[in-house]
């Protein structure tokens, strides 16, 4: 109920802002909805949303898999951590736009370069979060697993993974918001389709209705993923802590 009231207030403020500023500066919700319907009827809206969503899922998944593997390794191996840490600092402080432009210059305006740019921009955040998780592993639980002669796979499944799960969930929640914004920039600069491409087209035409007609459905889609997937996953990841307490 609280979320519905909050969304209702958002649309009320939007309507008021459109009335105050005029349609040239802020189109009304009804005008944006009409543009959405028109784009959906042509098939452009669903096609571009699906293309962008596919890029988000591919870049997010690749960054999380690589970030988890490297982050755990750095957290468990101090020598490797000292060696790789300067590279992480460089990636963390390099603007996303620079990474995207370099990827397109070196790799060309293709899907592989786009995916590489998305992954590289998300990767250091995942690595840092999972590294902290690996450092926070309880050594007493590790010793217990050794005393009871747990096989390596069983040790990872029952001792390591439950402790890392909250960090994976945190990296996923923050990472998804970062990735989809990066994907829009990647599409704006060098792809012939997707939500970012259509937003660039709307910008060139100074068409605010078209821009919002593509931006709002994708924001709503990401909110659904956050509410229906990531939040329940984060609660599930922290269940063992609450149960143990």
Question: What would you say about this model in short?
Answer:
With 245 residues, the protein is an all-alpha fold. The protein has one domain: MetI-like (MetI-like fold, Orthogonal Bundle), CATH 1.10.3720.10. It has helices at 2-21, 29-42, 44-76, 78-93, 96-107, 111-135, 139-147, 152-190, 195-205, 208-237, 239-244.
Helix count, DSSP H or I runs of 4 or more residues: 11
**Poorly predicted sequence stretches spanning 5 or more consecutive residues:** none
Summarize the biggest pleated sheet. none
Mean pLDDT over all positions: 84
CATH class, anyone? Answer: Mainly Alpha
SSE series: HHHHHHHHHHH
| Shape estimate | globular
Helix content estimate: over 70%
Estimated radius of gyration: 22 Å
CATH fold field value: MetI-like fold
Approximately how much beta-strand content do the residues carry? under 5%
Number of strands: 0
CATH A-level architecture: Orthogonal Bundle
First-residue to last-residue Cα separation: 31 Å
Number of domains: 1
Query: Could you say which structural class the secondary elements and strand pairing correspond to?
Result: mainly alpha
CATH superfamily: MetI-like
């Amino acid at each position: 109920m609280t979320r519905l009231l909050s969304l209702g207030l958002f649309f009320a403020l939007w309507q008021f802002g459109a009335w105050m500023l005029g349609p040239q500066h802020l189109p009304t919700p009804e005008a944006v909805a009409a543009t959405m319907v028109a784009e959906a009827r042509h098939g452009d809206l669903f096609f571009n949303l699906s293309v962008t969503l596919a890029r988000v899922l591919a870049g997010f998944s690749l960054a999380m898999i690589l970030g988890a593997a490297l982050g755990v390794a750095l957290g468990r191996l101090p020598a490797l951590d000292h060696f790789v840490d300067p590279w992480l600092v460089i990636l963390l402080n390099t603007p996303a736009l620079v990474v995207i432009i370099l990827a397109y210059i070196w790799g060309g305006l293709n899907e592989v370069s786009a995916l590489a740019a998305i992954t590289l921009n998300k990767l250091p955040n995942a690595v840092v979060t999972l590294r902290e998780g690996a450092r926070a592993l309880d050594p007493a639980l590790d010793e217990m697993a050794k005393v009871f002669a747990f096989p390596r796979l069983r040790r990872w499944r029952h001792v390591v993974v439950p402790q890392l799960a909250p960090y994976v969930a945190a990296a996923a929640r923050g990472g998804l918001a970062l990735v989809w914004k990066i994907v829009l920039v990647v599409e704006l600069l060098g792809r012939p389709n997707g939500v970012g491409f259509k937003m660039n087209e709307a910008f060139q035409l100074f068409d605010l209705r078209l821009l919002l007609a593509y931006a709002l459905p994708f924001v709503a889609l990401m909110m659904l993923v956050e509410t229906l997937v990531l939040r329940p996953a984060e609660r599930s990841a922290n269940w063992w802590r609450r149960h143990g307490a």
